[in-house]
Amino acid sequence: MNKTYPNGVQALKDFSVTIGNGMFGLLGPNGAGKSTLMRTIATLQDADSGSITLGDVDVLKQKNEVRKVLGYLPQDFGLDPRVPAEAMLNHFAILKGISSTTERKKLVESLLVQTNLWDQRKQKLGGFSGGMRQRFGIAQALLGNPKLLIVDEPTAGLDPSERVRFHNLLSDISQDVIILLSTHIVDDVSDLCTNMAIINQGEVQYCGEPLSAIASMQGKVWKKIIAKDELDAYSERYLVLSSKLFVFKLALRVYSENDPADGFELAEAHLEDVYFHHIGAQSLIK
Ligand code: ADP
Questions:
Q1: Crossing angle for the helix pair 130-141 and 85-95, nearest 10 degrees?
Q2: Start-end of H helices in the chain
Q3: Is 190 helix (H, G, I), strand (E, B) or coil?
Q4: DSSP 8-state code for residue 118
Q5: Largest alpha-carbon pair distance within the chain?
Q6: Rounded distance, CA 123 to CA 82, Å?
Q7: 12 alpha carbon to ligand 1 midpoint, in Å?
Q8: Which CATH number is 3-208 given?
Q9: Is the pLDDT of residue 285 over 60?
Q10: Torsion angle (degrees, nearest 10) of CA 136, 139, 140, 142
């Protein structure tokens, strides 16, 4: 699939992934093309060329078929801050065409319970925390009983406990629904996803299981603590994956098929190493 915006930015280049059951993570830095792909699958914008298949459905052509089975939680969604959660969800259910009052009441109740918002159902959305808003977003995305749920950067801005709670919710839902999750946070993928694609500058760099990606890096990641001003010299000699501040020094991780000696120690490979190996070395000094 290809997509170039009118301003000349090529957001997707020969992009191709197959999305199976369970939770699929789309991992990439900001500007990688994740939202472009999500919006295209959600039938909100067209690709210039290429194809997307979801089961038997040709996503780019059979848009109405896709919309019937799709739930979508975009990156920014506007909610009227004056309306209580329950009333708003009921309103969305009416818009979804659920006309029976009894059926609607039952559905709204069960979604509020499922997303852990039952106790806050009378609270106005304006007073919701980031995590509550995102869980409310999931409740509205689940209204039509979708087969595919697309969630675009849902954990950005959540604090650690809200993230864990949100992860648990997604993990429960993924028992029944295919979830496509985009994120720039590596841990979102390692905690949740059975399959993933790493994308950078509109191109797929890796597509497969996070666990096999990690396995293929074992024995090739080496670590060493160095002084901050040594980084440039090490970067010239080694394929640096990452460098993190560590008590006034740097915790350096490099990729090497063989033992680099030179004071390096073998490290256990993590998904973050896989990620940086594919998108290029990053300095993690904040
Ligand atoms: P991500 O979701 O991974 O951050 P996006 O899909 O939002 O990436 O963006 C990919 C690239 O396309 C970026 O360079 C971005 O600036 C550009 N882009 C995204 N949307 C538009 C648009 N509507 N018009 C022009 N350029 C866009």
A1: 30
A2: 34-41, 63-69, 85-95, 101-114, 130-141, 160-173, 186-192, 210-217, 231-237, 271-279
A3: helix
A4: G
A5: 71
A6: 9
A7: 9
A8: 3.40.50.300
A9: no
A10: 160
Query: Which of 15, 17, 35, 151 for a ligand 1 pocket mutation test, highest count of atoms within 8 Å of Cβ?
Result: 35
For the question of whether the overall pTM of this predicted structure is more than 0.85, the answer is: yes
How far is residue 220's CA from residue 202's CA, in Å, rounded to a whole number?
27
Q: Find tokens 């319970």 and name the residue.
A: 113
Residue 246 near residue 224, CB atoms below 8 Å: no
Q: Which of 152, 84, 79 is nearest to 124 (CA)?
A: 84
133-139 long-range contacts (CB < 8 A, ≥24 apart) are: 133/79, 134/73, 134/158, 134/162, 134/166, 135/165, 135/166, 135/169, 136/79, 136/85, 136/88, 136/89, 137/73, 137/77, 138/73, 138/169, 138/170, 138/173, 139/89, 139/111, 139/112, 139/114, 139/115
Helix, strand, coil share (%) of the chain residues, nearest 5: 35, 25, 40
The pLDDT assigned to 53 comes to 81
Tens-place pLDDT, residues 214-230 = 999 999 999 999 999 99
Q: What is the DSSP letter of 2?
A: B
Name all residues whose Cβ lies below 6 A of ligand 1: 5, 7, 9, 11, 28, 30-36
* Window from 74-83, 89-98, 118-127, 201-210 with minimum mean pLDDT: 74-83
- Kind plus residue range of the DSSP H or E element containing 122: none
The CA 104 to ligand 1 mean position distance, Å, reads: 37
Handedness of CA 139, 140, 146, 148 (dihedral sign): negative
Dihedral pair phi/psi, residue 92, rounded to 5°: -60, -35
Q: What pLDDT shows up at residue 281? A: 62
Phi, psi dihedral angles at 83 (to 5 degrees): -95, 135
